[in-house]
Design brief:
The complex is a heterodimer of chains A (161) and B (498). With 161 residues, chain A is mostly helical. Helix content of chain A is 68%, strand content 0%. The longest helix of chain B is centred in the N-terminal third of the chain and has 34 residues. Chain B is globular, with a radius of gyration of 22 Å. The chains are: A mainly alpha (161), B mainly alpha (498). Chains A and B meet through helix 2, helix 3, helix 4, helix 5 and helix 6 of A and helix 8, helix 9, helix 17, helix 18 and helix 19 of B.
């Protein structure tokens, strides 16, 4: 690609530019927080964070300059990014549901819907795997390993005995 | 106690049906994880670490190291059969292994990879057994400044993980180090970067971070790439290699095992680098170098013996110094911490049964891997054919239950998901995630020893302590070397263009 054509497509480097900028912003927030640490005679709690922040700034600035000068590889070609964000939202709903509705029901629904949304279409297998895992996790994790998985109050009497 | 005594003590520890059963389970799970394209040994070990919590420490650790060693072999199965390396380290095996499959000699390639993995793995373990205790005894005399320098040495080698971009690898390690500073400072008691939330007082737990970075990021990446089909594997064709064919590669296997073990010892450099270097050296020194890339058994042997021997090598700094030699070793540190065990020079005195049990478990795991590989390769090849949409859904629910089980906390599950997103974003833009984990793991060691050393003898201590000074010098050179190499490569490319 000619340099003029490259100049017309700045989006190809947005991701490469954004990541060090976001990291720099986070470092700035953490640095401002570290100024509130109580002062100490010896090597205080802020020394090591300051050291890391110094190096973070150094490498971020280097990467920003390298990106601006087009010395890094362009951003990867975007795939199904929308699908990933949808899936992250779905995961968040699952996390919320597992805490409030209970692990077993929400996991069964989550697995069935996830497999279907990930383009798997054999319904018998979807049901078997989801149900199989739910039963397996009850027997192994809840009963055998005593992991206190959240349980729906309505189902509690059923599972406890 | 010399190394032979320690080995016998180790065998005494693992004699019994339970340890043997856990080794067998570990090897089976390891081969399956390694064979699944996209799942690395670190992913497999990270997913299973939380479930080892309820096990006695010895059983938990031998289960995980068995997975570790077997996963390195498992990666070769799909590399040979479908030209898709199950692990990054098996990429070299695919070059010649798949060519042999195309010629109808998949059995030969699989047999050679199994034998080379077993021999290489055994070599790495022998070196581990011989050198672990002397190195740990030396480390007991270390000054805090030496420990700080050692941890810096461990971190500077991460440059090799950046795929040519040292700055990205270093930034990744700094993200990990910064994450490690969140929570109560153990020396002064000051709370740092908690943003007023009680849940962050203890910082982020290592296990959910590991699961998120290594396992969830793989799922997000696959969803983005639309990699949701299944791996189709044809019937395995051809016989296993004859004894004379195996014997003809003895020199290659011996040389590659040495290279793999030595490279494995250096933190940051791991199985992938070991297999590529060994493959290259084997190609240059072979009498049949024209066969490389077209189906050479020597090529398969070089790659597999190197990546398996690197496991033993990488365990040396982990057990003797508490410094992880690879991403999977960083995950193993998480397993040790889960059981309140601190890997390092005191480990072989405080928990000899674990150190020596690991020796014996690795040897037994190697033999079990050989048997399962000989008779079960067709079964493992079928397992690989499970559709990715089912596999990824399983990873998600295992991740949830795994991160929850550490402290029965939904905050850990949420942080696991957040680390998964972080890992996906970083990998998308070619930032390696293993250095983030190394940063989280080594952050505390670095900080505590830095501050102790300065409090004891002032900031000049790093120049007056000979071990610390020399290690910091070597670290600086190691950091500058890839930069210098990049500069030279660019100059050479420019000269070629002109």
């Amino acid at each position: 690609m000619s340099p003029s054509a490259e100049k017309q497509t700045p989006n190809k480097y947005v991701g490469n530019l954004l990541i060090p900028i976001i990291i720099l912003a986070c470092a700035a927030v953490l640095f401002s927080q570290s100024l509130d640490f109580p002062p100490q005679e010896d090597v205080g709690a802020e020394v090591i964070p300051h050291l890391w922040i110094f190096f973070i700034i150094l490498f971020c600035v280097y990467l920003i300059v390298a990106t601006v000068r087009r010395k890094v590889r362009p951003d990867p070609v975007p795939g199904h990014i929308g699908h990933v964000f949808l899936f992250i939202t779905w995961l968040t709903i699952y996390l919320f549901a597992a805490e409030h509705i209970g692990y077993f029901i929400s996991t069964f629904v989550f697995m069935a819907v996830s497999m279907y949304s990930l383009t798997y279409r054999r319904h018998v297998v979807i049901f078997s795997v989801s149900m199989g895992w739910t039963v397996f996790s009850y027997v192994i994790f809840y009963r055998l390993l005593y992991i206190q998985l959240p349980m729906n109050n309505l189902l509690k009497p059923l599972f406890e005995y | 106690m010399d190394w032979l005594d320690s080995l016998l003590f180790g065998f005494g520890t693992i004699m019994g049906w339970k340890p043997i059963l856990f080794i067998i389970v570990g090897v089976i799970v390891g081969i399956m994880v390694g064979a699944m394209p996209g799942l690395s040994p670190s992913t497999g070990v990270a997913l299973l670490v939380p479930f080892s919590y309820t096990l006695p420490p010895v059983l938990a650790i031998i289960l995980l190291v068995s997975i570790y060693i077997a996963a390195n072999y498992g990666g070769s199965i799909t590399a040979v059969l479908i030209n898709t390396p199950g692990t990054p380290a098996a990429a070299c095996t695919a070059i010649d292994g798949y060519q042999l499959t195309l010629k109808g000699e998949a059995g030969k390639a699989l047999g050679m990879s199994l034998i080379a993995s077993t021999v290489g793995g055994m070599f790495g373990i022998i070196i581990l057994v011989i050198f672990m205790v002397p190195l740990a005894e030396l480390a007991l005399r270390f000054h805090p400044a030496d420990y700080f320098a050692l941890a810096i040495f461990g971190l500077t080698t991460v440059g090799s993980m950046g795929g040519g971009n040292v700055a990205k690898a270093m930034l990744a390690v700094l993200i990990g180090l910064m994450i490690n500073t969140i929570g109560i400072d153990h020396i002064s008691g000051v709370t740092r970067f908690t943003f007023g939330t009680d849940t962050l007082y203890d910082g982020f737990h290592l296990i959910p971070a590991l699961i998120g970075l290594f396992a969830l990021s793989v799922v997000f990446k696959a969803i983005e790439e639309g990699d949701l089909g299944k791996n189709v594997i044809d019937k395995i064709s051809g016989k296993f290699p004859s004894f004379s064919e195996i014997w003809s590669t003895k020199g290659t296997i011996a040389r590659s095992s040495i290279i793999g073990t030595v490279i494995g010892i250096f933190p940051g450099a791991g199985a992938t680098i070991a297999s590529f270097i060994s493959y290259d050296i084997a190609r240059r020194s072979s009498k049949k170098s024209e066969l490389f890339g077209k189906g050479s058994l020597e090529g398969v042997a070089a790659s597999e013996s190197a990546n398996s021997s690197s496991v033993g090598g990488a365990l040396i700094p982990l057990l003797a110094l508490g410094i992880p030699g690879s991403g999977t070793d960083a995950v193993l540190i998480g397993a040790f911490q889960l059981h309140d065990i601190e890997p390092g020079p005191m480990l072989f005195k405080s928990h000899p049964e674990i150190v020596f049990g690991i020796y014996a478990a690795l040897i037994v795991a190697n033999f079990i891997m050989l048997i399962l590989g000989l008779y079960g390769v067709r079964f493992f090849a079928k397992i690989v054919a499970v559709p990715n949409s089912i596999l990824y859904t399983m990873i998600l629910v295992i991740s949830l239950i795994g991160s929850f089980s550490v402290r029965n906390s939904f905050f850990d599950v949420g942080s696991c998901f957040a680390f998964g997103v972080l890992g996906w974003v970083l990998q998308r833009y070619k930032y390696p995630v293993a250095p983030v984990v190394l940063g989280i793991v080594l952050g505390n060691l670095l900080e505590v020893n830095f501050r102790r050393a300065v409090m004891m003898e002032g900031p000049m201590v790093f120049f007056t302590q000979p071990i610390a000074a020399s290690m910091l010098t070597v670290s600086l050179l190691l950091f500058l070397w890839p930069l210098y190499r990049n500069y030279k490569d660019k100059k050479a490319a420019q000269a070629a263009e002109e």
